[in-house]
Amino acid sequence: MDNNTLLQIAKEYGSPIYVYDAEKITSQYKRLTKAFNSVNNLRINYAAKALSNISVLKLFNSMGSGLDTVSIQEVQLGLKAGFKPENIIYTPNGVSLEEIESVAELGVQINIDNLSILEQFGSKHPKIPVCIRINPHVMAGGNTNISVGHIDSKFGISIHQIPLLLRIVENTNMTINGIHMHTGSDILDIDVFLYASEILFETAKNFKNLKFIDFGSGFKVPYKKGDIETNIEELGKKLSKRFNSFCKEYGKDLTLAFEPGKFLVSEAGVFLAKVNVVKQTTSTVFAQIDSGFNHLIRPMLYGSQHEIVNITNPKGRERFYSVVGYICETDTFANNRRISEINEGDILCFKNAGAYCFTMSSNYNSRYRPAEVLIYKGKPQLIRQRETFEDILRNQLEIAM
């Protein structure tokens, strides 16, 4: 995705706009599968919540990926994109029993993360195999909002509740066919992940009918030059060896599953926005763009960093800018960031915008959500139209006054 291509896309389809590179998505998928090529049975379930455009889902399906979903709507999207039900895993949190039962009717793999629903579901549907989400009480993640394996997390069944879990399984005579964990996002320390994996292996010994063990994901990607990232190759080598050893102990070959989202699509996406105003105050130079946290909330929500490049003037003299949006609250993407000199009308490119960016966008301030473009086989293709005023009004009802 060179600057000229991106500028042409912004000119043709307008800004703000999200652009994704299918080639980068494909290379990340191949990198992950290659890292675990010594495992007999590997299943990569792409986490749909990261980027759920149906064209992106179809791309993953064409590569042989499975799909990780957290809502019945994501399941329905996956089925429409061509995924077979048996290649979809559904891992909700805090949803109703009715939704879980509706998903089960679609034939996808159910993953349950609390004892109450496990007992209710097992009592009513003992013949439907389910996966169990375990909370290993291992802290991982770059931010408290994305760390889900600690002891106070709402996610998963505590390893200290295993006796209760086993009692429910015995009483309902249900079948547990998978064990799952997810410690959090932005994993830096492979040894911490491997430690959590040992807890999962130990837990797995309690169940005799397993078909797979799902290790979640949360692999860190680089957000800027020289940034630390999860060493997938080292993790693949160490975890594959341990997994193969466990399969021998267990007595049969299980499937090793992951559910990456950010790792597969983050670096493949960019967000393009136009500079409306360059505003000099007594202490700061603001570059005010035609967007806000209604389109890209991660910096405000997580404190995430996105490298910002002025692709209109990439070789200009660098100056310090605070890049802000047009929302009525404080709406900051970057503070005092070195960026090539910015003029009004320039296009800024936010990198690492493929994961949890468009999917978390909204119509706050009654703004339209952006368009999306996928560069597929070298050709930019519109995969979502920019919203219109009719979209804002579509489900609203006017009452007589």
Automatic annotation (TrEMBL):
Gene3D superfamilies, per database record: Alanine racemase, Lyase, Ornithine Decarboxylase, Chain A, domain 1
GO molecular function list: diaminopimelate decarboxylase activity
Keywords: Amino-acid biosynthesis, Decarboxylase, Lyase, Lysine biosynthesis, Pyridoxal phosphate
Binding site for pyridoxal 5'-phosphate: G218, Y356
Residues in Orn/DAP/Arg decarboxylase 2 N-terminal domain copies: 24-266
Sites bearing N6-(pyridoxal phosphate)lysine, chain numbering: K49
E.C. number(s) listed in UniProt: 4.1.1.20
Residue sites binding substrate per the record: R298, Y302, E329, Y356
Domain of life: Bacteria
The keyword Lyase is assigned to this record: yes
Requisite cofactors: pyridoxal 5'-phosphate
CDD domains per record: PLPDE_III_DapDC (cd06828)
Pathway: Amino-acid biosynthesis; L-lysine biosynthesis via DAP pathway; L-lysine from DL-2,6-diaminopimelate: step 1/1
Catalytic activity: meso-2,6-diaminopimelate + H(+) = L-lysine + CO2
Domain Orn/DAP/Arg decarboxylase 2 C-terminal: residue ranges: 18-354
InterPro entries (UniProt xref): Ala_racemase/Decarboxylase_C, DAP_deCOOHase_LysA, De-COase2_C, De-COase2_N, Orn/DAP/Arg_de-COase, PLP-binding_barrel
Oligomeric form and interacting partners: Homodimer.
Family per similarity comment: Belongs to the Orn/Lys/Arg decarboxylase class-II family. LysA subfamily.
UniProt function note: Specifically catalyzes the decarboxylation of meso-diaminopimelate (meso-DAP) to L-lysine.
Protein name, UniProt field: Diaminopimelate decarboxylase
Gene encoding the protein: lysA
